[in-house]
Amino acid sequence: MKPKCHNASKEVTRWATLLVLAIMALSSCRAKRQVVATDSRSIPTPVEQGNVQEHSPSVLLVMYDAEVGKQPLLEAIKEYGCEVVYDYHMINGMALRKPDDKTLDETMQHFRQVKGVLTVEYDHVYHLTDPVKPKLEVQ
């Protein structure tokens, strides 16, 4: 029969090991935190911050009124020569690829005039992590 203090010391060692591993895992996480104001008028836009947001050069997002439906939009897509990249059924929107012979701004302006269209926006590209930067080896 083993003494009780031996089992207790094993238990303490196990918990201490788990605690150290948890601390190491949490401290190795890299996160950038930003304070967000509750008043949307005081939040600087990316342009105000000196960053021009990156967007797709050929895809735009179109949101339409559910009561009007998407039929007028589908007809306009066919007539204008766009391609439906994705149909967001749940939020009444579509991602459209512009025709090769039109600019993105021309295409966006055209779809703003279509019956039932609520908004036409750029398809912004958001990077979730920092780009990988290679380490230079010092000799």
Helix and strand arrangement:
Blueprint: H1 4-27, E1 55-64, H2 71-80, E2 83-88, E3 93-97, H3 104-112, E4 117-124
Characteristic key phrases:
alpha+beta, Alpha-Beta Plaits, 139 residues, 4-stranded antiparallel sheet, elongated, 31% helix
How would you concisely characterize the structure shown here?
With 139 residues, the chain is of the alpha+beta class. The protein is built from three helices and four strands; from the N terminus they run H-E-H-E-E-H-E. Strand 2 (83-88) and strand 3 form a beta hairpin.
What value does the average pLDDT take? 78
Main beta-sheet strand count, sense and barrel state: 4 strands, antiparallel
Q: How do the SSEs run, as a string of H and E?
A: HEHEEHE
Under the CATH scheme, which class of the domain at 55-124?
Alpha Beta
CATH H-level superfamily title of the domain at 55-124: Peptidase S8 propeptide/proteinase inhibitor I9
Helix content: 25-40%
| Beta-strand residue fraction | 15-25%
What is the CATH topology of the domain at 55-124?
Alpha-Beta Plaits
Q: Please state the second-level CATH architecture of the domain at 55-124.
A: 2-Layer Sandwich
Structure description:
By secondary structure, the chain is α+β, with helices and mostly antiparallel strands. The protein is elongated and about 75 Å long. The N and C termini lie far apart (59 Å). It has helices spanning 4-27, 71-80, 104-112, and strands spanning 55-64, 83-88, 93-97, 117-124. 9% of the residues are buried. Residues 34-41 have low confidence and may be disordered. It has a domain at 55-124: Peptidase S8 propeptide/proteinase inhibitor I9 (Alpha-Beta Plaits). It has three helices and four strands, in the order αβαββαβ.
